Amino acid sequence: MKDTIVVITGASSGIGAALALELHRRGARPILVARRQKELTEVSSRCGGARTIVADCTKRAEVDRVVAEVLAKEGRLDVWVNNAGRGITRAPSELTDADLDEMMTVNVKSALYGMQAVLPHFKAHGTGQIVNVSSMLGRVPFAMPRSAYAAAKHFLNALTATFRAEVQATHPKIQITLFSPGAVATDFGKNALHGGVDSRSLPNVQSAEEVAAVLAQAIADPKPDVYSRPEYKQSVIDYFSKL
Predict the structure, then answer these.
(1) Residue 153: CB partners within 8 Å, gap ≥ 6?
(2) The domain that contains 137 carries what CATH number?
(3) Which domain holds residue 237?
(4) DSSP assignment string, 75-112
């Protein structure tokens, strides 16, 4: 992975920040993207002064700007990680239009913007990798209060699969990876729309560092579908076998 240029959205904390540190440790060159400059600077200081770009990935023009800036300053871009996202705590019977719009914008549109923005560069070089960070809730909707988040991640999963099919029909060396973690010990729960329990208090929670190590390996050895724990795939199979 030495000198691999990896753009990470949502890199100011949580999985994104942990991934940046893990990639730096492995010799890659992470580029950190998020809305909060102070937090980005702090993560950068632990990653050998990694480049930071302040941007709101829910806005297409800002994502386009990130790609243009990276290519102008680095000359290439090897991997794009769509990690920005947000949860929600609200029963499905109580969801509002605003709730759905927020979940789709943050968890789906931001990823679509990244995929579309980086694709021309990858096609021109015939290679590259896009990683979409989804969730086990995008596989099995077992947390009722996360209803709209689970729905958005299901949407992201389908979008990832169809995007992969389109791209690989003509450019088979471009990989689009779907990454599905379970509960992670980050501020995700506390930052959920309408509040929520602290993710660190959930059972069988993984550390951000553990998840980042699996994700980094998925970049070192690209595959289309990766879970943060190997047993998660079987749990999905078991869930649908009982329906």
Answers:
(1) 107, 134, 135, 137, 138
(2) 3.40.50.720
(3) 5-241
(4) S---EEEE-----B-B-GGG--HHHHHHHHIIIIIHHH
DSSP string computed for 23-50: HHHTT-EEEEEES-HHHHHHHHHTTTS-
Per-residue confidence (pLDDT) for residue 96, from 0 to 100: 98
Catalytic residue numbers read 149
Instruction: Please tell me the distance from the alpha carbon of residue 224 to that of residue 144, in angstroms, as a whole number.
Output: 28
| Cβ atoms within 10 Å of 238's Cβ, excluding its own | 10
Q: Quick one: 160 exposed, middle or buried, by C-beta within 10 A (0-12, 13-18, 19+)?
A: buried
The string of pLDDT tens digits covering residues 64-114 is 999 999 999 999 999 999 999 999 999 999 999 999 999 999 999 999 999
- Does residue 242 have a pLDDT over 90? no
Rounded-to-integer distance, Cα 25 and Cα 47, Å: 8
**How many domains does one find in the chain?**
1
DSSP single-letter state for residue 206 = B
